[in-house]
Every structure is written in structure tokens, then in C-alpha cells.
Amino acid sequence: MIEDVLLNIILLAACDAYVVTIIFLSGKASKLFGFSGKASRKFLHIMIGNLPFLIPLFTLNSFPLNFPFLVAAPFVLLTFFASPYSPARALNKRLRGLTGMTQEGHQLGLFYYAFSYTVLALFFASRPYIIAAGIMPMAYGDASAAIIGEKYGNTQYRVFTTKSLEGSGAMFLVSFFTLEASLLFFSYLYSLPTQVLTLAAIGVALATTLAEALSPKGFDNVAVPMLGASIFLLISGGI
Hints:
Layout: H1 2-32, H2 37-48, E1 61-62, E2 65-66, H3 67-72, H4 74-81, H5 89-94, H6 96-104, H7 109-124, H8 128-152, E3 156-158, E4 162-164, H9 165-190, H10 194-214, H11 220-236
């Protein structure tokens, strides 16, 4: 038991170091790589979205020792303190790189993303493929929608915010392919019934694309992960 705890503490520290490194690089991406503010945020979204692939390494992933949850939870506070709503102005200034990305985008977008990740980790750390069903469309699909929509989005529509059919198409396709690949990866670890994976990936991609299109600014960072995980559970029969 002690060896398991030590192993999981080491993995937790490694994951936290990974996230902090990605946050640092995202904050410096405009200077280091010439990224725009939006590209820096999407880089952050994508790279953080890879964490579900590390969750199977944890051997303690349920109450009362849910280490994947412990990886995610501190960043809920961190992203809130980095937002314009932070009650701690001194800390807000220290988080200048993350603060800048937050203020340029949706003011609570990163907080919502961290919150969604944490909730999914709390309930599904022992089944990380469910977390992936929520996070892949947010990490890769939403980033693709923003990039393609900005560059090629000529056919626009508006519900709460202006979107484009080109961006929504990219959201669906990238969400489907990244989730399908993710589920195939997890099927080797958890003996998932592969016959339902493609259907689940299609359903999740469609539902999350609609959620991204219909959500007010920033709220898609909650709606997409939660709906993605829920649709996966519904179609897969709760595996």
C-alpha cells in the first residue's frame, strides 16, 4: 500500500509538472513561437487534453485516494485566481501569463475547463475513456473549430455567438477522429466492446458539436465535456 501511494504521488507530481510547463509555454508562446493569443489558448487546451492517457498509470483512482482528481483540482483554484474575478489581486499579477490568456479569451473559460476536468476525474478516474469522451472534443475539436472557423469560416450563423459551418464541420470531424483513436487506445487497456466505440464516437462528436455551436461564450468549456461524457455513457450502456 505504501509503495502504491508513493508511486501515485510521483505520478501526481509529474502530471502537475507537465501542466505547469504547458501553462508556462502557453504564456510565452507569442514570444517563443509567434503564436497569437487565441493560438496560445488552443495550444493549452490541446496539450492539457492529453492527460486522460496518463490516468491508467495511476493505481489509486477512487475514493478516498483519487489521485487523478488530485491532479486536476488545484487548477480550478489556479485558473480562478488567474481570471479577472480573482479576489487576490497580488496573486493575479503573479499569474500574469495565464491571466493574459484568460483576459484575451473568455474570462472564465480556463476556469470552466479546469472545473469540468476535475468533475470528470472525480467520478470517472477508474474509467478514463469516459473522461476522454468529454475532453477530446473540448481539447481537439473546439480548438480546430476556432482555428478553421477563423481562417475559412465564410458561412456564418449566430445563436448566442457567431459561428461558422466550416468551424462546426471541423469540430465534428476532429472530435470524431480523435475520440475514435482514443477509444481504440483505451480498448486495449480495458477490454472495451469495440463494436460500440465508433457509434459512441459519432454520437459524442455530433452532440458536442451542437453544444459548442449553441453555448454562450466560455460555457462550452462546461457543456462540451459534460455532454460528451454523458452521451458516451448513454450510447455505450454505461461501460
